[in-house]
Amino acid sequence: MSSSDNKNNKALKPNTSNSKDTIKTSDNSTKKTGLFTRIFAILGLIVIVGLYVLSFVASVSDWENSFGIFVGALAATIFVPIVIYLIRLFSNKDS
Fold it and tell me: Residue 53's pLDDT is what?
């Protein structure tokens, strides 16, 4: 093999350097943010699932406002994850 072949082979090889050195985060802030995000995600999931269950019960029971409850469940499906994302976004700016 010539020296030009060695250069081409090196260019084709993937970079195997340790990428852990490039990302530096504090363990405490990661744990707090993870816990904070999980709590809000679980609360959001409970709200969304609860609204769909209430919507189902309202439609089976023939309540007058069953369609309004269903529309509220659809709106919550869109807006609750957005609110959780915004809370997470603003909480990360402090750290």
Answer: 92
Helix (H/G/I), strand (E/B), else coil: 34: helix
The domain locations on the chain are 44-95
Annotate 37-86 with DSSP letters as a single string.
Answer: HHHHHHHHHHHHHHHHHHHHHHHHHT-TTHHHHHHHHHHHHHHHHHHHHH
Measured distance CA(80)–CA(48) in Å, rounded: 8
pTM (two decimals): 0.55
Residue pair 43/25 in contact (Cβ under 8 Å)? The answer is no
Closest CA relative to residue 55, chosen from 41, 75, 37: 75
Q: In angstroms, rounded to a whole number, what is the distance separating the alpha carbons of residues 92 and 32? A: 10
Mean pLDDT by 10 residues, the chain (95 residues): 55 51 49 74 90 90 88 90 85 61
